[in-house]
Amino acid sequence: ITISLMHGFASRQRYERNKKAMNIVSKEVIAEMLDTAEKSPRRRSHKNFHATLEDSIHRLLIGAMPDTVFPVHRHRNKFELFVLLHGEVEAILTDDEGNVTKRMHMTPDGEYSALENEPGMWHTYKILKPSVILEVKPGPYQPITPEDTLDVVVE
Fold first, then answer.
1. Residue 17 belongs to what H/E stretch?
2. Which partner from 15, 109, 119, 148 sits 20 to 30 angstroms from 74, CA to CA?
3. What is the 3-state secondary structure of 48-85?
4. Secondary element (H or E) of residue 38
């Protein structure tokens, strides 16, 4: 009993010491993300959970308004995990010419709430209602090049 109590005490001490570094998604954080996105010229906001752009795994929140534009793009050598935490989004997959191959209506509690794009998969997102997304993909950061975007408008 003494050992388990000591272990529990030590765990609580570690928790108290480390909780400032914990990344938390709360209703308050979601509201802040949406407020910042609404005021942004791009109509988006970002909150990185990773420490640097060189980190091996990137985790970030994206706040997005319905009038923001995500071009059709791909990540050649990286998967992208997209988890909708708040709002309503249409995820759209295309072929190499920009022809729509699949549409998924996403809500946090709907049929689709998360998806993982395989490396090289062309995709875009249409924000239907103010939304907050958790995105996870391998690092380090690599800007999307012109070769990794399609100059098409998906309706």
1. helix 2-18
2. 109
3. ECCCCCCCCEEEEEEEECCCCCCCEECCCCCCEEEEEE
4. helix 27-39
